[in-house]
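Field reference: sequence -> structure
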Amino acid sequence: MKQLKLLPFFIGIFLINFGYSQSVFDEWKTIDDRTGKPKGVIKIYEKDGQMYGDVVQILEDGKENFKCTKCEGDLKDTPVLGMTIIKGAKHEGGGEWKGKHLFDPEQAMTFRCKIWLNPDNSNELKVRGYLAFIYRTQTWIRVKD
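Structure field:
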């Protein structure tokens, strides 16, 4: 009888872990699709029903204090650490988020974006940036505690 009383507890733990691993809202290690090297950590979060992403760590040696020197306006010479690089992406259904603001501080360029979990591995986030009809996709890796 004791085992039956513990069953809801174990089911709850399983569902919490399953739900957590399926979420795009987490910290993600960015991987340069050209070099394969980690670049930084982005915290993806939801605010007012939209997706945002902030740079919370820079992993490249020597770039820890990197400033957006190519940026213009208010972003000129601001630190990349703490910068919001994804703004206002909206859930489009089917686990996809789309938006008009994916900012690359190295190029000082803003792209349209599509973001989704890899259906084969929920610890991989696919991040695609669009410029007109040209696009590039990176795979970001979930940061595990």
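Note: The first strand starts at residue 27 and ends at 31.
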